[in-house]
Structures are given as C-alpha cells and as structure tokens.
Amino acid sequence: MKKIFSIALVLAAFASCKSNNGGNTLPVYGKRTPVTKTVNGQTATDTIYQTIPAFKFVNQYGDSISEKNLSGKIYVADFFFTSCPSICPVMQRNMLNVYNTFKADPDIKILSFTIDPKYDSVKVLKKYADKLGISGDTWWFLQGKKDTTYKLAEKNYLVAVSEDKTTPGGYVHQGYFVLVDKEKRVRGAYDGTQPEQVNQLIADIKTLKAEPTPAAGQ
Questions:
Q1: 46: which strand partners?
Q2: Is the dihedral of CA 160, 161, 162, 168 positive or negative?
Q3: CATH of the domain at 103
Q4: Looking at 48-52, 90-94, 150-154, 187-191, which range is the least confident one?
Q5: Does 130 reside within a domain?
Q6: pLDDT (mean) for 38-66
Q7: Quick count: other Cβ atoms within 10 Å of Cβ 8?
Q8: Could you tell me if residue 215 is inside a domain?
Q9: Fewest beta carbons within 10 Å, which of 4, 56, 64, 180?
Q10: Mean pLDDT to the nearest integer, 49-61
Q11: First to last CA, the chain
C-alpha cells in the first residue's frame, strides 16, 4: 500500500505566514517564491505563493467545471468515492454542516473530487448528491481523469490518495477538508471526520470572508 503522509506535517513545513492581528488572519500554506523587482530605481521583493493550478472536471449535472468557475470564490475541497465503506460517509455528513451554513452564499463553493472516476459517473454522482439532499451550485461532485485527480490531490491540495485493492473499497485517502481562498491559495486543512474541526472550518471561512483582498504580490 502506498504510504499515506500526514497533511498536518506537510502544512506545518510549508506554512508561509501566521496571524499577526489577534488571530483574524489565516495562515497561507504552500511553497512561496521571493521575486525581486526594480521599479523606478527602487528594488523591492514580492512573495509569490503556491496556488491551485488550472483544472477541468465534470460535475454531477454534466457541466464542465474549471478554475474559472471559482474566480473570486472561497471554496472547500475534499477527495472521496461514492462506494467508500469507511470515512467518506462521515466526511459527507460533516460537510453537510458546511453546505447548510453557506448554501445561500454565492461566494462559497464546495468541491468533492472522486478518486474512482471509472465507477463514479455523472449519473452516479448525481444520485449520490440527491441522496444527501444537495441541489443548486454550492456543492459540486467532480469527476475527471484519474491521474489528473491524484496529481492535483497530492501536489496541490496536499492530500494523499492511492488505489489499494487490499483494503475495503479498493482505495485509501485522507479525509481532509482543504480551505482555498479567492487567490487560489490553501489557507487551512481540517479533519473531515471530526465535528469540532469542521466547526473550526466554518469559523475560518467566515474569517476568510472578512479578510481584505491582498494587493498584488502580497
């Protein structure tokens, strides 16, 4: 079985900033690159943060969804599969709390990426969403190419996923809910099986909504 790493350790290693105004600003996670520029004879260094790259998937309605659909949005991402017999049912029940809190807010989205796209067709994802009572465009269940999904999970969302036919369901994945800001930067990760961490996610989304939009290079 592919080794599952701890996102907590990865995020701690790459955390690029911490709150400095009484806890009202969330950290920015991921790699950062300093870029030095000279403008009008003045030298300044900007920080370029790691962001979620362009992607294209299909949702439970058969609509094409890309990063363009998330422009100016805050969103939560997770990875699952509909036939998961272990943590997925708990994760999705807890994600319902996030959905119910923000389903009337057009600036908040939820993205659940299937790691079993061969089985999880658009029809299967729609049935799964209907069973959860999901409607509208707040929560999208997304299907795409398997290799693309796995690369996006591990490289960009820092969530480990793998295929393992020796385990129930045939797949292994971490149950983190990953918070992404309007600039496509990772701002937090929460254990989706733990209600208290999901409550913290809800609080942090509200904190993130209140943050001012950063100036270029910040």
A1: 35
A2: positive
A3: 3.40.30.10
A4: 48-52
A5: yes
A6: 85
A7: 13
A8: no
A9: 64
A10: 94
A11: 40
Q: Which pTM was predicted? A: 0.83
If 0-12 CB within 10 Å is exposed, 13-18 middle and 19+ buried, where does residue 75 land? Answer: buried
Q: What is the pLDDT of residue 37?
A: 67
User: How far lies 92's CA from each of 17, 147, 151, 187, 211, in Å?
Assistant: 30, 23, 22, 21, 27
133 Ramachandran zone, left/alpha/beta (phi>0; psi -120 to 50):
left
pLDDT band at 136 (very low <50, low <70, confident <90, very high): very high
In a domain, 2, yes or no: no
| Count of the separate structural domains present in the chain | 1
d(CA 29, CA 137): 27
Radius of gyration from C-alpha coordinates of the chain: 18
In a domain? residue 217: no
Which residues span the domain enclosing 97? Answer: 7-210
For 188, half-sphere exposure in the C-beta direction (CA atoms, 13 angstrom radius) is 25
Q: What is the total residue count of the chain?
A: 218
Please tell me the predicted confidence (pLDDT) of residue 158: 84
Sequence-ordered list of residues with C-beta below 8 angstroms from that of 100, at least 6 positions apart, any chain: none
Q: What is the mean pLDDT of the chain?
A: 84
Q: Please report the beta strands in the chain, taking only residues with DSSP state E, as ranges in sequence order.
A: 32-39, 42-49, 56-58, 64-66, 74-80, 108-114, 139-142, 161-163, 171-173, 176-180, 186-191
